[in-house]
Amino acid sequence: MSIETSKTFKILSSVIALILLASMFHWRASQNYKNADYYNSNFFVFWLSGKLMLDGESPYNPEDWSNGHEKYGTITPKEPTFLYPLPLVLFLTPLGFLSLGQAYYVWQIISQVIIGFVVYSLLSRWKSSAHSRLLIPIVVFLLYFGPIYLTLQIGSIGAISLLFLFGGLNFLDRKNLFIAGLLLSFTMLKPSQGVMILFLLGTFFLLTKQWKFIYGMIVGGILLLILGIALNPNWVSIFINSSQAAFDRRLGVQSNVWSFSYLACNGNSTCYSILGASGMLILLVATIYYLWRNHSKISNWEMLNLIIPISFVATLYLWAYDQILYILPIVWIIGTFVEKSRSYIFPIIFLVILDLYSLFALLQQATTSHDLWSLGTTILVLLFCFIAYKMKQKPAIDKLASSA
User: Fold this and answer.
1) How many CA atoms lie within 13 A of 228 on its CB side?
2) 374 closest CA partner among 339, 323, 328
3) What is the dihedral of CA 384, 161, 121, 313, to 10 degrees?
4) 180-220 pLDDT, tens per residue?
5) pLDDT tens string 225-237
6) Among residues 3, 23, 28, 163, which one has the least CA distance to residue 91?
7) Pick from 42, 36, 39: which is nearest to 83 by CA?
8) Where in the sequence is the domain holding 208, given as residue range(s)?
9) Domain total for the chain?
C-alpha cells in the first residue's frame, strides 16, 4: 500500500469512526430524553442550581431551593439545599440557559464525548493500530457498563471528574507536577470521588518529596474556596452540614467499607464507627505503603489504577455512577491484554464479564435501593488489573521464527 493510499485510508477510517460515534451518542441521548424521568433525576438538581444562579438566587438558600423545585418541576426537594460544593455551580450555570429537556440532552452528548475523547487519548498512548481499532468496541461496551449507563440516564456529572483526572494523568507523565496537582484538586467538585483520591495522591507525593504537586493541590483548593466564598461566605459550613445529613441517611446502602461496617454492626454507631474507620485506615495505609515501595516500578497510570478503586471502597459516600472513573483502569487492562497477548480474546472476555456483572449490580440497586453489589465491580477491576500486570509478554512471531 502506497503512503498516499495509507493516508487516505486513515482519514476515511477516522471519518467513519466519528460518524459511528456521533450516531451512537445521539441515539443514546435521544432514548434517555424520550424515556427517562429527568424531572426527578440527579440532573434536575444540577440544572436547577445553574438556573437559580442565572436568576440571581442561591442553591444554598433553602427557600430559593424549595421555590425553584416548585417553579421548574418537582414539588418536594429531596435535599434541603444543593448537596454539592458551591463552586460546582459555576460549571453548571451554562446549562441554565437551556430548558431542562434541552440541557439534559446536551449534557448527555457532552458526557459521551468526554468518555470517547478519554478512551481515544488513552489508546493512543500505545501508538499501535491494534489498539486504535479498539476505540469503537470499547466505547460501545462502556455505554453498557453499569456505572456509565446509570450516569447517562440520571444525568450525573462524573464526566467532569473524569476529564480532570485524565488531565492530571497527562501532566504527571509530562513531569509538570504543579499543573497535575492543580487539575486533580478539582476532582473535589465531586467530593465522593475526589477526597480519597487526593488524600492518597497527596500522601504519596509527600513521602516522595514531590513538592510541586502538593503546591498545585493547595493552590487548586484555595481557588475553589475563594470561588465559593464569592458566591456565599458560609458555603463550607452549609456544605459540611448537608453532607453529614446525607451520609447518615445512606449508611448501609452503598458499596464502601462504612456501609458494610454499618450492616455488620447492626447499626450500632460505636461499633460501625470503629470498624469503618479501621477498615478505611487499613486500605489507605496498605495502598500508600505499596505505592511508596514500588513507585519506581509502576507508571503514573498504573498508580491511578490502584488508587481509584481503593479510594471508592474507603470513601464515606458513594453510588455506582461514581465508578465512571474506572474508565482509566479499564482501558489500561484492555490495552495491556492486547499488548501482552497479541490477541483480542482476553479484552472481549473482560468486557463481557464486566458489563454483565455491572448491569446485574445495577438491577439489584434498582430493585432494592441498595448499592452493595457494586463492590463486585471494584473487585473485578482490581482483579483484572492484577492479571494484566502479571501476564507474561507473548513473543513476536518473527522472534519465534528466528529462535527456531
Assistant:
1) 22
2) 323
3) -10
4) 999 999 999 988 889 999 999 999 999 999 999 999 999 99
5) 999 999 889 999 8
6) 163
7) 42
8) 3-393
9) 1
Q: Provide the residue type at 281 as one letter.
A: L
Three cell numbers, residue 348: 472481549
In a domain, residue 338? The reply is: yes
Cβ contact 359:144 at 8 Å = yes
Look at residue 209 and tell me if it is in a domain.
yes
Q: At what angle do helices 375-390 and 300-314 cross, to 10 degrees?
A: 160
Residue 16, φ and ψ in degrees, nearest 5:
-65, -40
Rounded distance between C-alpha atoms, residue 279 and residue 268, angstroms: 16
Contacts of 13 (CB under 8 A, 6+ apart): none
Triad 400, 403, 404: Cα angle to 5°: 85
Cell numbers linked to 228? 465559593
DSSP 393: P
Model pTM greater than 0.70?
A: yes
| Cell reading at 42 | 440527579
In a domain, 399, yes or no: no
Domain annotation covers residue 402: no
